[in-house]
Every structure is written in C-alpha cells, then in structure tokens.
Design brief:
- The structure is a homotetramer.
- Chain A has two domains: 159 residues, 3-Layer(aba) Sandwich (Rossmann fold), CATH 3.40.50.720; 164 residues, Dihydrodipicolinate Reductase, domain 2.
- Chain A is globular and about 60 Å long.
- The two termini of chain A are 38 Å apart.
- The first copy, chain A, contains eleven helices and 14 strands.
- By secondary structure, chain A is α/β, with parallel strands linked by helices.
- At the A-B interface, strand 8, strand 9, strand 10, strand 11 and strand 14 of A face strand 8, strand 9, strand 10, strand 11 and strand 14 of B.
C-alpha cells in the first residue's frame, strides 16, 4: 500500500488492552483510529476514560449497536471472552479482524465447549480463523481475514517451547510451566480480587489446574509434537502492573543439553524482529521488556540430570496482546511487520 | 523457669533479620535484650538504625569485639554467611546459640566446602549443631546448645514436602520447586540488585541452579527419603518487602492422589501451632501470613496424570528466620514454644 | 474488672477496618469476639473472607437483622458512612459503642447535613457522642457510651497540630495540610479507582477541596482556637497498602520557632503511650509505624521566614481507625488503655 | 539539516538518566549514538548494564579518559553533580553540550557555592550556559552551545507556576510546594536509602528545607517576579519507579480566581507540544505521563479564601531529565523540537 492510512476500529476500547492498542496505533504511521466502542462508556470522550491518551483528536466512545463499520479496514476486538463470536459474525466481509479474546483460539469446538461451558457460536468463522502467533503462523496470517490473537501466557510459553518440541530437544509430555503475571492481565474489570490491597505486597497462585490458557498451550504444542499432550501450567499474580514471566521446567530429549536448547532457539529466532535469546547466564526480566513488543528467552541447566529450565519474559499487554495484534494487522495488510512497534522497553 | 527473663544478645542487629528478632523479643514476656552488636554501626543508638523500634530502652549497638557475653543466656547470630563459625566457637559454653546464618546447616563438611568455597572452620561445633526445623527436630532442639536455624526457602519447602516424602506419597527424585520471594530475603546489604528501581514493577529468576539453599533442601529430603536426592529449585525476586511462596510440582507415588497428600499434611501438622493446611481450593497467599510465624500449605491436582502441586506460604523474616529462631529459643530454654509469637498476619 | 472477657460485636466485619479490629482483638487479653456482622457475606465462615485470621474459632458472619445483641458489652461499628445512625439507635442501652464511621463525628447537625447531603438521623445520640481522639478527650471517653472514632486523616492532623494551636504557637487560619495515604484507607469497596492498576506505580490527589475529613479537622481546630477556622487539606493516593503521612505547612505565631514547636509537642505527649515526637532531623516515615498504634511527629524549619513544617505518620487502619477504637474501648471499660495494642511496627 | 544523523555522545551512560537518553535517542530519526562513557563500567557492552537496550549495535562503554570526542555533534552529560564543570571545559568547542547535572543551573556563583559547598570551577562556561526550561528559554536555547537542563522538580514547579507569577495572578512570596517523586529520581547510586525495602510500602519526606532544587526554583521565580523570593519546597519519596507530582499551594493576587489561573496556563501553553492543562475537576496523575515527555497541569479552588492549588505531573526521567534534554538538543541543532519524543504514556 502507499501512504494511505488504514481506517481502524477498536471494540472494547475502554479496557487496558484497548488502551494499549490505541497507544500504539497513535504512533503507527499508517493507522487512523476511526471507531472506538465501549458499551458502558458510550458517549464519553476517550480522554475521560484514559487521560494519558488525551489530545489526539480521537473519536468519542460509542456503543457497538451505534457503530458504523462502513469504510473500516481493520477491527480489533478486545471484548470479554464469550461475547465476540456473534459480533464478528455480524461485521462486513470487507473488514479484517484481529480478535484479542479467546473466542477463536481453540480449533476444536469440543475443546472450546469443554473449557468455556457453552457451544461455539460461529463455527464457520472458527474454521477460517488463523491462530495469531506471528512467529509460527506468518504465512497464514498474511492471508487471513480473521486472526485469533494468542493469549498472553500462551505467547510466552509457545515462543519459548515450540522450537524445542519441534526439534525433538525436550519431551512434550513433561512440560511444567510456572507463570507469573502483573495485574493488568486481569483487565479493568472491577472485582475485589483485583483491588490494590488484595494484590499489593504479596503473591499467590490462581486458576491452578483450571486456567483457560492451558488448552490453548496444549493445542499448539500438540500441533508441533504431532500428538495430544497435557501440560502443567500454574499462573501466579504479582504486585506489578505489567509483565509476564514463564519458567518452564523441561525434560531433555535426544541427548540435548541446555546449550543445545539455547542454540536451537537462537537459530529459530535469528531473523525475528521481536524475539531475543539472551546470552547464557542472563536471567530474562519482565522489566527489560516493559512496554515493548519484545520477548526475551533464556535457557539454564537444571540441577536434576536430564532436565533444563527455559525462561521467557514479555509485556502481557504488548507482545502478549495489543502489540502482537498490531504485528498481525501489519502482516494482514501488507505492511512492514514492525511498523508502529518500535517503542523500546521502559526501564526503570 | 519462673518469671525471670532470659538475657539475650543479638549479633548482627542492624540487618532486617536482627530487627525482626528485636521486634518479636520486645513482645516476649520472658526475654530481655541485653546486647546488640553491629560492627559497622557500633556506637549508634538502635533507634537511629531502626526508628520503628524506638522508645524501648534498648542497649546501644556495640562491635563484636566490645561485646560482653557474660550473663547472657541466649545469643542469636544474624551475621552474613561464612562469618559466624569462629565467633560462635569463641562464645562461653554457658550461652545457648541460635545461628540464623547458613554456617551450621550442612552436616557434611564436604558439601559445605563445595557450596561455600572454603572449608568449615568449626567442625566440632558443626557436629553438635541441630538443624532447627522445629516441626521435625523438636526433641533434639530441646537439648541443643547450638541450633542452625533453617534458611527461609528450605523452611517452606521442607514443611510442605517432608511429610509427603516420609509417607511415600511423592517421588523424591522428581521434586521441582519454583520459589518466589520478597526483597527482604536479600537482607539490608547495599547492592545495586536490591535498589528499588531494580526490583520494582518486575520479576526475574536468580541463582538458577546455583542457589545455596538447594543443598540444604536436599540434605533434609535425603534424610527422610533414606538416600541422596537432587531437587530442582529456582527462586524468583518479587516487588514486595516480605513473603515467600513455594510452588512444588511433585510426582505422585504409592497410588496417592492430591486429597491423600492434603490429608497426610493435615494429619502430620494437626497439633502444630504454626502450620496450617488450608482447605481444598484455597490458594495460600503470602499476604495471609505477613508478619506472622505461620506457614500455610495447600495441595492441588495437576493437569498431568500422576502429578500434584503443593504450595506453601511464609513470611521469610518470621517463620523463615526470626520467628523460627525464637520458637527454637523457647524450646531450648524450656518455655512454651509459642511464647512471643502470637502476632497475627497483617493484611492488607 | 477482673479477668472476665468483654463480649464484643463487630459490625461491618468484612471490611479492612473490621479485619484489623478482629486481628487486634484476638490478641487482647480481655476481649472475646462474640458477634461478627456483614450483610453481603452473611452465612460465611470468617476465614473464607479473611484467611489470614483463620483458626481462631471466630463466629460466622451474620446479617445485622439476624444479630443477637444480648450479652454484648461493646459493639464496634465499621459500616459505610450514613448507615450507622439508625443502627446504633436500635442497640440496647447496655451496649457501649465505638463507631468507626463518620456518622457521629460532627457535632453541628447543620455541618453534617452540608457535607453528607442529608439530615442527621439520630440527633439525640449525636448530642451524647464523644469525639474519640483519645489524647484530647480521655476523661469524656471514659464516661461515654457512644464514641465517634476520628477519621484517619484527622487523627494524624489533630495530634500534630492541636498542641500548637492550643499553645498559640501557630496561626490557626493558615494551616495547609498535604496528606498522603495508602489505598486501604478507601476500604474494601469494589471500585475501579481502587484497582491495582489504577493505583500502582503512580500518585495523584483526590477530593481536592471537598474531602469530608476537612470539616472534622476544622471542628477540632476551632474548638481549640476558640473560633471558626478554615483549613486547606489535600489528600493524595499512594501505591501502598497502609500508611498515612501528613505534611502540615504552618505559620508561626507568638515568636515561636521550630524548636519551640517540637518542645511543645514533646511536652504535651510526654506521658502518651502511642505518640512519639521524633528528634530534630528525623523524618517521620509511615513504614516506621506500619501495623502499630503509634503516631510519629516531627518538626522542621521552613525556608520561608516565620513558617515551619510539621509531619506526622500513622498507620491509617490502626491509630487511624481500629487501634484507636480499641484504645477507646479500653478506656470506656476501665481497662489499661494500651491493652491489646502492644504490636510493634512491621518494618520492612 | 538534511537526513544526516547527529553524532552523539552520552557521558554517564550507566545511570538511569543515561539509559533513558539512549532509549529515546535510539528512536530519534536524526541521532546516532557514537560514544557512551561510564568510568566504573568501562569496557562493558552496554547491554550488560542495561539489557532492555540490547540488540541495537551500541558502542561499548568507555571511560571519560579514553573517549574520542572528535566528530561528535552533541554530548549529553549525565554525571553526578559537581563533576561536570571541568569535563565540559575540556570538550572541543565544536561540540554542543546538554548538561543534565546541576553544575550549570545556578547563574549566581555565590548561590552555587552556598548550596554546593565549593566554588564553581568553570565560571566562563557558566556565564555562557542557558537554563534549559524549553518553554521559557526557547530562543536562547536555539543559539546555545551549552544548555543546563533543569532539575526534575524545578521543571514541574516552574511550568506550573511561572505563568501565574508572570501574570501577577499569585503572590510569589507565598509559594508552598509539596512534591512527591518516584525513586528513580535518586539515580542508580547504591545507597541504603534507595534499597527496595527502605522505600517499598511507605513514604517519607526528605531534604526538608535543604533540597538543592530550591535555589533553582527560586532563581527562576525571581527572574519572573523581578525580585528575590523564598519558596517552601518539601519533597517526598514514594514507592514507585518513575513519576513526579507537585502540589503547589498559592495565594491568589490581583483578584484572580482558580479559573483565571487555569485560563492563564491554558493560554500560555496553547501552542506547546508537551504541556497540557487538564480540564477543571481532573486531577493530574503521574501514571498519565509515565514514560512520556508530557507535563499535565491542573488548578483547583482551595477551601481557604484567596488561595488555590496548582498540581503538575511529569515523568522525572523524561520531561524531568532526558526527554527535555533531547527537546533542547533538537532546538540547538535546528531540528523539529518534538523529534524522537512522540512516545505516549504507558498506562497501566
């Protein structure tokens, strides 16, 4: 395309994911934000809801019912899980869609029904949807009309582990993932569990054995392993706004050692603009990717023979959500994949 | 004993562990703080170093060289690792000692030398020292003159796992422990890594595969398992002052399920004043033990067949250090074990 | 009284103030918690709502309508402002009441109506209520049946400033108070403004020129000054759970200097168990009173001639609420005023 | 200039200010980082010191003694106060300099000597230096060879107050400024006071009546007022990485009201790209400018008649330091002033 700007809509623009989409799109040289929806905040100026984004002439928030989709090139859906399927089905065919909810991530409707408690409501769209882990589905994303943006935890887990499973370097049946996340991963929904005093100065695990990102991880590991797998995945809530760290405990396979794993990752991601394999001995830290679209991955020897530790860090709202969504949009629209994503990490 | 007060010395009283000892001892009905040492702060009033403990008529800080040990009943050593051995060797025989450093925790001098890089300097004392995990060594602690207070991580790990290993409910060769700690675990030493901005709003793993609490954990698991074991142990630093959470991924043995593990723990700790096994479905949180001597333990099913997840939470400075030390002192001196340790958790 | 325990009820026990009352009362040697109410959580075990207080055999939560007041000696009301007046009016006369809401703090019903938007609903009780700033109303509190516990901000402000106004050392018409508070001051109510991500890593002022603690401060300053006053009071929200710091900018009067102010405060509070005037040059810090019933006060020279700076730190939930309430209960019931309030500050 | 890139050196590149300069310069379309100095880290790769800036081909750190200044267009000095004067004096005349220390901010050498305890070491350079508050000294900055970048606190204070003093709307002799800052303002220097546990979960004032930003504020207020002034300025440390909020209590003059103040600010800054006057009722928050070069200013009525409250928020490392420095560099080099400074605030 030329210098024309894509006309973009953001559904669910009053959440943290929506705000980070807007933050990044405002710096994107080929994007124009034409529509912002938020049912409960409809009628408000966007800067009333997010004062940090004031002064950019953004359109006011409207309800989905009031939205005018005509002329839009791309719509990002940042709505709560379970609400997106009928909405996307109702969009004009001409609109490309990046869905940031979980609604189109699981290819098998039976798995979806099992984990979400109701049947999928847009099966033909599901069949068409491409799983948006850019580094693994780039060709399909380029051609897609509907991309299911990965969950934040799956993004970090899969970037760290898929090359190792693919290379036969680790046993896909013995993956144990201990995950840590900042509170923005829970969104802006008003729940007691997300109050400052319920999270500040402490930590705890949640969704133990039941977190919905588990089937998503399993789907993609299984796709690479060539057979069903069950992974152990336990997320923890940390007293910080942004950031996600996954510590994966893996059993080595095929005679590989930690250095082989690191080499395989470095090789796989050598040409990737947003994945960085850190040197031996460097511990990936969420603060080193805060606000950026980067994923840092490190590999360490485990004390147990035949085992290793793989650690990955992302910003859950950027590479784990809005940044990856824009990366996918760029691909879908024929733009340079890195466009609008050049912001470096904010440390400290 | 009667209502007489124990005369107590605290070595290394200018650190966080020392401060928490003083905080707790000031509320102990049979303790009198008679000596406070801190070489670099010698000569200062204690409230200059810790204003939160002002107004209690505490003795001023003196150097170890100036210290008068005569008349002391108990000395707590809260000095950096590697400095305590000669000092304890020089104390009068009449003084009972609770050492909060790692200097006397490892029974095998070869293991000590391997992990600490120099030979042990007080081998006969080491032979005499009792490992101070109260719930497991209570009879020996009662008779001990020198107690090696456990490390903070080992305390949480061992309380959670020893009953399961002892009962043959989990495989001791497949223990994977992902640990999370607040920054006070690093003490008050002035290092760049502990600056607010290096820790705030982020997380990272440290000491991966090399943390010195690993051999301590292995020593005690091996003692119960009856053979050497190697554990996987990876600590993470979290942006909070206090609190330690360990998430242990275990392989079930002997046909046991998660409920069996929980029952075994509940049974083992039924009479323990400071260990609480939380109900099924409740996730232990560090904020629920903050400032208290409690350890909360929970058990969860893992998604992988034949596996489970055991989680324990403590305050690293209390049950993980100073509180346990006072618990041990009470035992060593024939007092009620819970004396001075009744403070409840400070939440929020 | 003898060793009998006071039978105590806590209304609004599911809030942070309620939890801190329970935390402190469980360590009080003459208190027995006999009733806990929380309308929305009625029927639940207390440890479900506050796991940090599990294991003490507390009564289950009941609704106010179900509550049995018979046999109670004292009731603490920790309910939202505006709901307490009819409830207290309905309690048996034999029950002493410490109200932690704002409902009985303002003596002038017209001022109450102006700031709370509706007429007072229990005027005769209001006439009877004693303002519970212990250090200033001790004799009346001893005789009171109903004590209106002060707000957290007024507590810190008044302890710092009343002796100076009373002594003619500062101009009561030029009091500027910049206040900073942790988030627990907002209670456990579920509002977007109190979500972790809305507060973490940032600060802002709120209630500027409109905060309801302003008339309360003015009432008490005026009582001492002998004429109406208007104060400037601006609170700020800080990313921490507990703690309140007030920085008061005062104009000196009567030829006084900063040292005179410090001496007047030290003199006034010399016999007070919970107020500590810190030495010249020491900056009061909220972390030095965290979890304790202490108030630390410091005085500093200002660069502007004829002015000074007075700083006070409290824990908003303890001296600013629950601790002060128990201090008042002790007085009302003829107990040692400090009973149950011996916990020292938790630092770090 | 054309598309050529400025060759840039950063002295003191291992501090937080240095890192934020590098972060911003890497996104600047006309900047090339050619030299990075850090005496204590000389010889290290930059990404060893700041992993969040890895992968950009930055030059390694060298000592000042080893530095090659030839060919440089601009040098930023981010060194500790008191060390810059001789270094700048030794740079080639062809190099433009933006100094981020306090070394050239005070025009009067006597005031400098009084506050810094030693005589100025480069008086002729001082005479030439332009105070770099861009919005007030833009024409002089364009022509300057040496710009003294303002302190973080003075930046927020002066942007908020200078238009009001200049317009005769407030009394310059009654300015009371209560300031709050994140810990990064203290730099990366390793001091006990900046340890996580000394700052986390608490707040306190520091430098009361003695902070060196006071004479800098007074110098600029006096320049506008036309006569010497003394201001009250009290900074507080908050448990957050970045962000600075100043709450100024002002006495109204010339019959002005709060709305007049807001209007005067809005008028003064209408064309400014980085200063935003927020609507009535909106409270400026540091989180709304985090990571960006913006300053938000709000005005509120005070309860005291004839007074008002002016609040300003900046990111201390960006608009308070590195961002402003680049803004000045752009002016000095004839570039668009906003170049490289388009990053929006990172919230949450």
């Amino acid at each position: 395309m030329g210098t024309d700007r894509l006309k973009i809509g953001v559904m669910g623009a009053s959440g943290y994911t929506g705000a980070d989409l807007v933050r990044l799109l405002l710096c994107h040289p080929h994007a124009e934000i034409a529509l912002l929806t938020a049912d409960r905040q409809a009628g408000k100026a966007y800067e009333t809801v997010f004062p940090h984004l004031a002064g950019h002439g953004l359109p006011p928030l409207v309800s989905v019912a009031e939205a005018d989709w005509s002329g839009l090139d791309v719509v990002f859906c940042g709505l709560p899980h379970g609400t997106t399927q009928p909405l996307v089905a109702g969009l004009p065919d001409s609109v490309k869609v990046v869905d940031l909810s979980a609604d189109f991530r699981l290819r098998d409707p039976a798995v979806y029904a099992q984990w979400y408690g109701h049947g999928h409501q847009a099966l033909s769209l599901q069949a068409e949807a491409v799983y948006g882990l850019t580094e693994w589905y780039r060709p399909a994303i380029r051609e897609a009309r509907l991309v299911a943006n990965p969950g934040c935890y799956p993004t970090a887990v899969l970037l760290a582990l898929l090359p190792l499973v693919a290379g036969g370097l680790v046993d896909p049946d013995a993956l144990i993932i201990d995950a840590k996340s900042g509170v923005s991963g829970a969104g802006r929904s008003v729940k007691e569990a997300n109050l400052f005093c319920e999270v500040g100065e402490g930590t705890h695990a949640y969704g133990i054995g039941t977190h919905r990102h588990m089937p998503e991880i399993e789907q993609e590991v299984a796709a690479v392993a060539g057979r069903p797998v069950a992974v152990s995945f336990t997320p923890h809530l940390l007293p910080m706004n942004r950031g996600e760290l996954i510590t994966a405990y893996v059993r080595l396979a095929g005679g590989a050692g930690p250095d082989d794993l690191r080499a395989a990752l470095a090789d796989r991601y050598a040409a990737e603009p947003f994945v960085r394999v850190v040197p031996a001995g460097v511990s990936p830290a969420t603060r080193h990717v805060r606000g950026s679209n980067f994923c840092h991955i490190g590999v360490f020897a485990d004390r147990r023979p035949g085992c290793a530790i793989v650690i990955a860090a992302i910003d859950n709202l950027v590479k784990g959500s809005s940044g990856a969504a824009i990366q996918n949009m760029n691909l879908m629209c024929g733009l340079d994949e890195t466009m609008g994503l050049g912001q470096l990490a904010l440390f400290p």
